Amino acid sequence: MTTMPDQITGGVDTHLDVHVAAALNAIGGLLGVESFPADGPGYRRLLTWLESFGTVVLVGVEGTGSYGAGLTRHLHDKGMRVVEVDRPNRQERRRAGKSDPLDAVEAARAALSGRAKSLAKTRNGSVEAIRVLRVARSSARKDRVRALNQLRSLISTAPEELRAELRGLSIFRLVNKAAGLRPNDRTDVVNATKLALRSLARRVRSIDAEMAEIDAVLAPLVAATAPDLITLSGVGTDTAGALIVAAGDNPERLRNEATFAHLCGVSPLDASSGKQLRHRLNRGGDRQANAALWRIVFTRMASDPRTQRYVERRCKEGLTKSEAMRCLKRYVAREVFYYLVPLEAA
Length: 346
Prior knowledge:
Elements: E1 7-14, E2 18-24, E3 30-37, H1 40-51, E4 55-62, H2 69-77, E5 82-85, H3 90-96, H4 100-113, H5 126-157, H6 160-166, H7 171-179, H8 189-225, H9 237-247, H10 257-263, E6 269-270, E7 279-280, H11 287-303, H12 305-316, H13 321-340
Parallel strand pairs: 1-4, 4-5
Antiparallel strand pairs: 1-2, 2-3, 6-7
Helix pairs in contact: 1-2, 5-8, 5-9, 7-8, 8-9, 9-11, 10-13, 11-12, 11-13, 12-13
GO molecular function, one term: DNA binding
Domain Transposase IS110-like N-terminal: 11-155
Pfam families: DEDD_Tnp_IS110, Transposase_20
């Protein structure tokens, strides 16, 4: 009689330098706990260690989008099914204490029991490329706004001859004018202010060049990844990029459009009690994707007659404009989902 290999469920507590793994058998028995370096050779050793107990059918990983991203990519490349474990069960932590081995065991138990059932993003395709470019562009945009605010603030307190020269200019002309200031070697207030203004203006120019370089790669990448999505009303490169990143490189892991709506934080949460039936606002989910849906709705409210008629009708029914926009965000999430996930996968 041939014996079937044990089905193994793994759990990993991830850290910057070390990952702690635990292995469970099919009935939840603990087979072992081991630590591995958080690098390529360590990932290979971790998977080999899990496979030494039997056939690995599932691995629960904490922090698949941070410290566990590299391990998650490696496991996906090896054909492993990986689920994302948000955090250890609080009741179990209070009962048993807190340690890395205990967290790894709890991650494995969460995967085995089905508490952790969200498949992890693969982070190994064009969507991951879009994500990292958006991270760099977002920080550049924030730095640009900060530099412009500092530039305007310095102008408002500058000596009168500088204020008169720079007051009332558009952003483009202001940056060009300030970048061309020529302070001399004297350290009086006028020349020190000229130096500060020139430094800030040139910083804005440098950031503009950075953003243009990123946009030159990002825009065609978004268009190639979801060519039909950017044809929708109100959807541009930035909003499309946020929604694509929310769905991930493997959007088929999203079971249906309701799952995507919940991921974006636009699905109302049931808050009924007794005879009172009500829902409350969902403040969770991917906030960048949520903001992208808001921008789409806002644009359509200004330019799309069908959306305008909907808002007018719902306001007559007693909803506020904000409440009507929340309804529209839910509808847009449904529409977008089918442009992100192939119909056969959905």
